[in-house]
Write a structure and sequence with these properties.
The protein is of the alpha/beta class and 244 residues long. It has a single domain, classed as TIM Barrel, CATH 3.20.20. It is 46% helix and 17% strand. It is built from eleven helices and eight strands. Strand 3, helix 4 and strand 4 form a beta-alpha-beta unit. The chain is globular, with a radius of gyration of 17 Å. It starts with a strand and ends with a helix.
């Protein structure tokens, strides 16, 4: 079975915030994404609230519970006390912990394990005790997968930036082999495998070889394509590229 598609709706929120009103309506965009065939929704609140705001977390969770029961909500976030309390309050199906560097444009690296293991373990334990599946953002390094398993997470989300950027270049085969090896290493360590960052309907073809892949999170490429063909068509293209 192909991996599941979780659509990251951050950029719909970013566009809304730039005008100061409620257009586009984030919940309506969420509905459209799911009606188009997406299997889940991802949001990534940040402390600066530059796209998903803190009130969106509650609103999105409540809307999905009321109108899309059983559909996965994945909250990506840094390990910050205020945000973690929000996650615990709404109890999404999955929380993906992502390291954050102040001032970064977007997430661009995985956790440094085992160096950062001691700070992550208490948060992971709290999330799991609340019944939330826990994933952590990791670079595509096969040796790092056992370190992730050792701190008790359920899954890893593989940072696919280098893989995506190498697509169509002489580095494509090297980066593809690296991500496939990392997926095998994660599965061997007993972990589920997610992936995300700059994936699109072209480079997704390479990940169809990864039998271990459970889920991909795609946001930026989806909305960029949606500007050309619309949200429904852009998600349809992604699903075809994933093997649906």
């Amino acid at each position: 079975m192909p991996a599941l598609l979780s659509v990251n709706i951050n950029k719909y929120a970013l566009l809304r915030n730039s005008r100061g009103h409620n257009n586009p309506d984030l919940l309506a965009a969420l509905d459209t994404c799911l009606a188009a065939g997406a299997h889940g929704i991802t949001i990534h609140p940040r402390l600066d609230q530059r796209h998903i705001r803190f009130d969106d977390v509650t609103a999105v969770a409540a809307h999905m519970a009321a109108h899309h029961p059983g559909v996965e909500l994945n909250i990506e976030c840094e390990d910050h006390p205020f945000i973690i309390e929000q996650v615990l309050a709404v109890r999404p199906a999955q929380c993906t912990l992502v390291p954050v560097t102040p001032g970064e444009i977007t997430s661009d690296h995985g956790w440094d394990l085992p160096r950062e293991a001691s700070r992550l373990r208490p948060t992971i334990a709290r999330l799991k005790a609340a019944g939330i599946r826990v994933s952590i953002f990791m670079d595509c390094t096969p040796a790092g997968m056992q370190h992730a398993a050792d701190i008790g997470v359920d899954r890893v989300e593989l940072y696919t930036g280098p893989y995506a950027w190498a697509w169509g270049t002489p580095e494509q085969n090297t980066q593809t082999a690296r991500i496939l090896a990392t997926g095998r290493a994660a599965a061997a360590a007993g972990l589920g495998v997610n992936a995300g960052h700059d994936l699109d309907s072209t480079n997704m073809h390479g990940l169809r070889e990864m039998a271990e892949l459970d889920e991909v999170s795609i946001g930026h490429a989806q909305i960029c394509r949606a500007l050309e063909v619309g949200t429904t068509a852009s998600i349809g293209e992604l699903l075809v590229s994933m093997g649906y």
